[in-house]
Amino acid sequence: MPGxxxxxxxxxxxxxxxxxxxxxxxAMQDDDVTNPGMLWVLDGEALWNRKDGAAGRACADxxxxxxxxxxxxxxxxxxxxxxxxxxxxxxxxxNACRVGRQRASPLAHESRDLLALTAYVARQSRGMPVxxxxxxxxxxxxxxxxxxxxxxxxxxxxxxxxxxxxxxGQKLAGSTIPQAHPTGYPLYRLEWQSLGSLQxxxxxxxxxxxxxxxxxxxxxxxDLELYLMWRAHGMPFEAPAVRP
Amino acid sequence: xxxxxxxxxxxxKRGEIIEIKTLVQHAMETGFRRTQLxxxxxxxIIRLFVCTYNGAEIFRAEFHPAISANPLLAFSTVATExxxxxxxxxxxxxxxxTQSARITVV
Lengths: 244, 106
What we know:
The structure holds 2 protein chains of 2 kinds.
Chain A: H1 23-30, H2 37-48, H3 59-63, H4 66-69, E1 79-81, E2 86-88, H5 90-102, H6 112-123, H7 139-150, H8 160-164, E3 171-172, E4 175-176, E5 187-189, E6 194-196, H9 198-208, H10 219-231, E7 242-243
Parallel strand pairs in A: 5-7
Antiparallel strand pairs in A: 1-2, 3-4, 5-6
Chain B: E1 4-7, E2 11-12, E3 17-24, E4 46-53, E5 56-62, E6 72-78, E7 83-91, E8 95-105
């Protein structure tokens, strides 16, 4: 299904948001001592090893060392979940594990603990290529995500694709429009003064085009995440990234 | 407990200028923001950062509102002797974090 222009971005012209940043912000991301996302990664490591829930188990009790077991996991999400019969993102996978295996309460979206655990798991995929699996089961959700990306919406009547497929590299006010590749989430945004999820970023964009954002965890958001990850297929994962 | 990350080169030559980088976890609530009900959110910031080199103070910074969350500081000093470089952040609501690093001067 073509976008408004029918163009998309040719594989050779894809650029991570990293390449649109200033030298200073790139240096901040590159060094683990200056990358504030690492504070969440350290918190996440502690949570990974902490027993929780009625089952009295820690993530590490089943999954072992995350540095081995979680390698590549974030680069493969959203991924098919048999229990819910649809693709789920990494945050939902962590909460499914909490409820199903640890018998603990699910963590709230954008809560400090969920961001920390997600950041810790995502950190294990740094440098690996984005590789979401598209098959007969996930194809309809990918198509739904693509439809959301190319559909005009909101009072400004804009589609995601009009900025991120057709006008990347140009300016929106003082900022350079990136290509919207979700390769660094959860990431530390200087504007937020905090780590945030991809869905938080998507809400920002929707509010910016004066559309009503979907709720956190809404299936429309997960479909859009799936489409964006598929669109970034093969690009290196860089979580936790830093963005202006 | 807030986390702090510091980077000090482990082994350096005597007289060399070294760069020290520190990052500390703190929301740095300015005291100027209000809740949706209009109540002022009390200020909660780091007030002071002190770095000592074998007990002698080599760097100090006073923090104020409008300094970013999770403040990152980088500064330099001259490597004079082997020992410990210690870092202390103190602030509102009894905030206090200490961290230290060993340095070997050859």
